[in-house]
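Mods, move this if it's the wrong board.
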Amino acid sequence: MFESKQEMNRIDGGRIRRTDICLVVFFLFLALGCFILFAAGRTDGQVLRISYDGQALTEVPLPQTQAQKTEADNGTARYCLILYEEGASCEWYEVRPDLASAVPEGGSYNLLAVSASGVTMEAADCRDQICVHHIPITGGGESIICLPHKLVAEIAGGAPTETPDGLVKAENANGVVPKERRPGHETDG
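Not the wrong board. Structure tokens:
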């Protein structure tokens, strides 16, 4: 009996069955549905937030920047040159600055470009250049991070920030008030 099953599997092993086709079609529709769900739920951000070492450097409203693009003007961008000396500072330029003259000798820098097509890291003097090769960010919650310089450029304001997670929503719907935060192993004295 065992030998006949092996022989049947060997004979049928090269054919595609109807169930195989149904499974492939099912997973294709599942993937397409997930793609549509995520694409429909994606929102554009409203604010570019640039922070250094956890401290906010500047915030720029993106709709104003995106409204500057016209058909004749094929890629107007504003540039943010971030210099690191004893902390970080951000200077805005309407045209791409000459880095040789704008950056002091021996200084570290990042150059962000904000345009209608998104926010990109144009240049940086870090070793790995991962931030420079990052794709442009356009949607809420996306970010470009330069770890050597402790810089984060993120787009915020696309998703509602006041929305609690699902557990809190369920607790509030049931009328359950969340418990107060309990102190850990801390003592009063």
